[in-house]
Design brief:
three-stranded mixed β-sheet, two-stranded antiparallel sheet, 6 helices, 74% helix, globular
Length: 237
């Protein structure tokens, strides 16, 4: 795949494609939520039914995986926004890519491990925060040494593996989907002229539809696992 355009500022590298894609999808999520929630009525209209269904869907994920009522109250909105944001970012590269020369300026932000690791880090920090609020700082860290103290380093390693699997699962699925679409369009289609172009067109459409499904599932999986990790931190085992 083409390289993203990266620029340096104050000694730091910034991926312009990821920044543009994330900002664009944040604006889309904001617009959709405002549009769907306008003119809320006691008897819901079609738009209100859509946003209420989405809220109930993500709230169900929180209730199924987080037993602490205080944590649930704060996580419902987070799960809703996280699901919509990741879902939209997963689909962006399937329908819109902007390339200038050899540099990519717009693509799916979740096809970059830095983006997915940022989401995973938010989940990790939230799990620490809710855990410390529930048990106190000392009580929270003592949970890592239960039922026996030698489990402490093993449990700390588990935190690192949870972070990596949560982020890299999302990245790998979205990146692989975009790579295959690129191979179909840039390598397979022009390889033997009109014959392969005709064959590549339906193949690309089928894979694009499958990628939409995968992107939806991955948004659901990411939010569900995030709630599972946070739920474990507020539950005494």
């Amino acid at each position: 795949m083409e390289e993203s355009f990266v620029f340096k500022f104050l000694g730091l590298n910034f991926d312009l494609a990821g920044m543009i894609g994330s900002t664009l999808m944040a604006a889309v999520v904001l617009f959709v939520c405002i549009w769907l929630s306008r003119k809320v009525e006691l008897r819901p209209n079609k738009k209100q039914n859509v946003i209420e269904y989405l809220l109930d869907f993500t709230d169900g994920i929180v209730k199924d995986n987080v037993s602490d009522p205080d944590a649930r109250k704060h996580l419902s909105l987070y799960a809703f926004v996280l699901f919509l944001f990741i879902f939209c970012m997963n689909q962006l590269g399937l329908f819109l890519e902007v390339k200038v020369g050899d540099n990519m300026f717009v693509k799916s932000p979740t096809a970059d491990p830095v983006t997915t690791m940022s989401f995973a880090m938010m989940t990790l920090l939230l799990s620490f925060t809710f855990g410390m609020q529930k048990f106190g700082v000392g009580g929270y860290w003592r949970n890592y040494a239960e039922p026996v103290s030698f489990l402490f380093p093993i449990n700390m390693i588990e935190e690192i593996t949870n972070f990596l699997t949560l982020s890299l699962r999302l990245y790998g699925n979205i990146y692989a989907g975009e790579v295959l679409l690129t191979l179909i369009g840039n390598s397979l289609a022009p390889s033997f002229g009109i014959t392969t172009m005709v064959l590549a067109a339906p193949l690309a459409m089928i894979w694009q539809g499958f990628s939409v499904f995968i992107g939806s599932i991955q948004a659901y999986v990411f939010v569900t696992l995030s709630m599972v990790y946070i739920g474990k931190k507020v539950t005494k085992e």
